[in-house]
Amino acid sequence: MGTSLKSIIYDLWESIRANISDDDVLDYRNFVYWINNQRALWLRNELNKGHSIDPNIIQDLGAVPLEIDDSIASNEFIQDKKILRTVNKIPVTIERHDKPTITRIGSLNYRERGYSIVDYFTVPYIGSGKFNKNQIYAFLRDGYVYLVSDCNNPKWKTMKYINIQGVFEDPTEVAAFNTSDGIACYDDDSAYPINKWMIPYLKDAILKADLRQFIRPIDDEKNDANSNLTQFVTNKDNNDKREE
Asked: What gap in Å lies between CA 89 and CA 92, rounded to an integer?
């Protein structure tokens, strides 16, 4: 199992707690934002270099529910196609040369090959051949994933869920999605989607940029900073319970 988000936050706190004023308030959510932001910057830079996508940075949205979409199906552009759409928007992905980084859209059977991911403007021209008329195609638009297929596709009437995988800007947003067994796809104790070699650089960037304003050369004889760490993690957990 990889390093969790919570453990990265603890490590950051341990590296600064001796030099943090007891009057300073560092919220758990600040750390989450800084870590997510630095991760996104690093990954965008790496992916735009043409590097292959490491499995460690990919997240799985589990079983994503579908619904029939009449609004886009009535568009003259694709009015002869059958359209399904995810009920909810999916998290924003890391952009790779202006393209979303979706690595798989397919059935819940992971052994099956994923659907072909196409651009919205190519939809009128797909599935018209002799050998591809029953294929399922997927495209991303306005934050939703759409599926397109010929009306005679035998799988179409039974489709209620799809599986989506990708590299997302905010990994914590994946917590809103569940597996087919109803288990949340992510929490702060899960493996954080990042390459291990990147963690030291991420921490260093946060220390130099985001946490610099909070660090002061003070003595913490009573070790009160330990209690501060417990407090802001406890506050985070309490906030989550109130939001539920």
From this structure: 9
Q: How much of the chain is in helix, strand and coil states, percent to nearest 5?
A: 40, 20, 40
Residue with tokens 């959510």: 29
Indicate the helix (H) or strand (E) that contains 73.
helix 70-73
Six-digit token pair at 141?
């638009």
Q: Longest Cα pair distance anywhere in the chain, in angstroms?
A: 78
pLDDT band at 230 (very low <50, low <70, confident <90, very high): very low
Buried b (16+ CB within 10 A) or exposed e, 114-133: bbbbbeeeebeebbeeeeee
Q: Model-level pTM? A: 0.83
Cα–Cα distance, 97 to 48 (Å, whole number) = 6
Instruction: Give bridge partners of residue 164 from the DSSP assignment.
Output: 105
